[in-house]
Amino acid sequence: MTTTTTTTEPEPRTTLPRSALALVFVFLLVGGALRSVEAGCQNTLKLALDNVWLCGVISYAVALTGVGVILIVSLVFSSTRQLPTRAAIAAMPKWAPLGGLTGGAAIFAMITVASSVGIGTFNALIIGGQMFLATAMDHYGVMGFPRRRINAKRIGACAMIIVGSYLMAKY
Questions:
Q1: pTM
Q2: Count of domains in the chain?
Q3: Which end of the chain is more exposed for a tag (fewer CB within 10 A), N or C?
Q4: How far is CA 19 from CA 15, 22, 25, 28, 29, in A?
C-alpha cells in the first residue's frame, strides 16, 4: 500500500516595480500616521460629547459621507464606470461586508482606551495584534489572500513588535 502526499506550494507573490513599491510604502506610512490623527480627533470628540456611542456614530457618519463623496467624484471623472453586477453581488461571500463591523470595533477601542494608555502604546499594540492575526491569515491563505507560510523570521518580526509595544508602554 502506497500513500501519496501532496504539498501545497505557496502562491507566487505579485511584485511591483521598485518605484511603485516605494509609493505604496509612502502611502501606507501616511495612512498609518493619519491613524494617530484619527485617535486624536476621536479623543477630542469623546471629551466634547462625553458619550462614546455618539462619538462612534458621528465618526462613522463622517467616514461614510467622505467615502460617498469620493465615490461620486470617481464615477463622474472616470472613463470607466464599473459597478458590480447583481450576479457579482449575489456571488460575494455573505461575511465580506463585515469588515466595516470590525472597523467599528477598532474605532470603539480607540475611543475608549487610547487616552488611557497613550496613542503610541495604543498604536503599537494595535499593530501587534494586526501582525499576529495577519501572519496566521497569510499562513492559511484565508479570505482571498495568497498563502505565505509562517517562518522563524516572520515570528521574530511579530515578537519584535510586541517588545516594541512593551517599550512604548514602559517609557
A1: 0.67
A2: 2
A3: N
A4: 11, 5, 10, 14, 15
